[in-house]
From TrEMBL:
Binding site for AMP: K415, G416, R417, D418, T419, G444
EC number: 4.2.1.136, 5.1.99.6
Pfam families, per the entry: Carb_kinase (PF01256), YjeF_N (PF03853)
Gene: nnrE
Cofactor, how bound (note): Binds 1 potassium ion per subunit.
Name of the protein this chain belongs to: Bifunctional NAD(P)H-hydrate repair enzyme
Length: 502
């Protein structure tokens, strides 16, 4: 549960359960303020003139409380507030009254007069778009180079969806409490947060049992126990046999990228299935990856009769059409799990329901109805299978992916900077790794191969997809600038070493 993300409503429940169990709200606020000050001391030790912007709710209360501590520690603190202390209520009123002066109206705030700005305007309670005086002020603040530390969330960012409600603060750093929120990881929220620190304010993790969060940060804690390391006396077949289907002679590179990634990702064996027309070109480029001829569905079905071939990638460079549909049907009728990507997805654009019915039958045959297919669309491909969900602008990305997964009875891995992986049972994970250098031809093919590697090695379908996405992003981070798709598989040994180090 350490990877759980809490929606603002769930976080309010965590607060309420903690308060009901005997911790006063003002104590939580004081601890939140102490965590903010600690973050300031670590990141901005030399900031002398500090402005604390205080909104009308408890986010403002945190700002008043932090202002008091900063002042005691010798910083020159000024509070600019939307409401004077006497107009506040609850814990925020207590914190504001304890500060010692009334602060100044927000209109008097000038960013250029400060070394650091603490943004305590709105957090979890943001309920509508920033407008008027506040919107203008945020605009001026964002245009000024002064660093900003946001309390809980950059004001204007929805903790639920990561959306900008009107206008939003662009922070240098954000300190949130107990657990991060989806809006810290979903774009554009993620880009507004700067570095995110999650502070312990004494909320007991046991409250999560009552809350039952369904959204997670995609971190190793979510899937580490599903990954296998080769056993001392292990055999290559213990690590599964991944299969990648190649396109015709002019489109073979994508399959080979996926195949290399599957092998580096730990599958014991990897075979490229190639149409006759492309066998020669594939043969010239493959070494550890094996090659087999396959020109029709009957051959594929026969090959999959060997149950050791347990995970298959279909789609990269394959071509859109009836043969892709036929092959997908053959794989979903077998015991192997399917990663359907790129052209494989597009081939079902005219009849997504047919694909979903095949996936449902395959899931029904598996233990506990576990998904037998991972769909790996980018936004454009997603729209082809789920046009109505893609059009529902107001829906948060995890919710969109979750509804798609339920409909397709499959794991849906919706790519982008904030890739989301969702399962039919409602779990959704937001990825935490990656760099914009991943936006390069062929990087999606590598990802498909990595998913197949984790499936081949026996990971549960949701966890396999999550692990692959994390490792793919981590490989890009560790490689750094200048990345092309070929570099990703080569980085995997370092990614595994990082994972092993904890
Ligand atoms: N006791 C607790 O429950 C704790 C709460 N904490 C803090 O409390 C915050 C949540 O507090 P609240 O629920 O009071 O919510 P906020 O302080 O985030 O905002 C709620 C207030 O802002 C107003 N508002 C919302 N959107 C607006 C807009 N666009 N323009 C103008 N006014 C707007 C609302 O009417 C309400 O008065 C968290 O973000 C966190 O910083 C922390 O102190 C930890 C403990
Ligand atoms: N700006 C970005 N930041 C981080 N990751 C990105 C970004 N843009 C794309 N990606 C990732 O790069 C990969 C691209 O996949 P895809 O769109 O299928 O490309 P291709 O078809 O060229 O292989 C996905 O894993 C996606 O999440
Ligand atoms: K804030």
């Amino acid at each position: 549960m350490s990877a759980a993300l809490l929606t603002p409503a769930e976080m309010a429940r965590a607060d309420a359960l903690t308060i009901a169990a005997g911790t006063p709200g003002i104590l939580l606020m004081e601890r939140a303020a102490a965590a903010i000050v600690e973050a300031i001391e670590a990141a901005f030790p030399d900031a002398v003139r500090v402005a604390c912007l205080a909104g009308p709710g408890n986010n403002g209360g945190d700002a008043w409380a932090a202002a008091a501590i900063l002042q005691r520690r010798g910083r020159a603190v000024a509070v600019f507030r939307l409401q004077p202390p006497e107009k506040l209520s609850g814990d925020a009123a207590i914190a504001a009254q304890a500060f010692g002066n009334e602060g100044a109206p927000l209109a008097a705030f000038r960013p250029e007069a400060f070394d650091l700005v603490v943004d305590g305007l709105f957090g979890a309670g943001l309920s509508r778009a920033l407008e008027g005086e506040v919107a203008g002020m945020v605009d001026r603040l964002n245009a000024d180079p002064v660093p900003v530390l946001s309390i809980d969330l950059p004001s204007g960012i929805s903790g639920l969806t990561g959306e900008r409600l009107g206008m939003a603060v662009t922070a240098t750093a954000t300190v949130t409490f107990f657990r991060a929120k989806p809006g810290h990881w979903l774009e554009p929220g993620r880009s507004h947060c700067g570095s995110v620190t999650v502070a312990d304010i004494g909320i007991a993790p046991v409250v999560l049992d009552a809350i039952g969060p369904r959204t997670f940060a995609n971190e190793p804690a979510l899937w580490r126990d599903q990954l296998r390391t080769p056993a001392d006396a292990g055999h290559k077949y213990d690590r599964g046999h991944a299969v990648v289907v190649s396109g015709g002679a002019a489109q073979t590179g994508a399959a080979r990228l996926a195949a290399t990634a599957a092998l580096r990702g730990g599958a014991g064996l990897v075979t490229v299935l190639s149409p006759s027309s492309a066998v020669l070109v594939n043969a010239t480029h493959l070494t550890a990856v094996m090659l087999k001829r396959c020109d029709d569905r009957a051959t594929l079905t026969e090959l999959l009769g060997d149950r050791r071939l347990n995970a298959l990638v279909l789609g990269p460079g394959f071509g859109v059409g009836a043969q892709a549909r036929d092959y997908a049907e053959a794989v979903l009728a077998s015991e192997a799990r399917l990663v359907l990507d790129a052209d494989g997805i597009t081939s079902f654009a005219e009849d997504p329901a047919a694909l979903f019915a095949l996936a449902a039958q395959a899931a029904d045959r598996r233990t506990k109805g576990e998904a037998a297919m991972v769909l790996t669309p980018h936004a454009g491909e997603f729209k082809r299978l789920f046009p109505d969900l893609a059009a529902a602008d107001a829906m948060a990305k995890p919710e969109t992916a979750r509804q798609a997964a339920a409909r397709a009875r499959s794991i849906v891995l919706l790519k982008g900077r904030d890739t989301v992986i969702a399962a039919p049972d409602g779990r959704a994970a937001i990825n935490t790794t990656g760099t914009p250098w991943l936006a390069t031809a062929g990087s999606g093919d590598v990802l498909s191969g990595l998913v197949a590697a984790a499936l081949a090695q026996g990971a549960a379908t949701f966890e396999a997809a999550c692990a692959a996405v994390w490792m793919h992003g981590k490989a890009a981070e560790m490689f750094g600038p200048g990345l092309i798709a070929e570099d990703l598989p080569a980085m995997l040994p370092k990614v595994f070493a990082r994972l092993a180090a904890g």
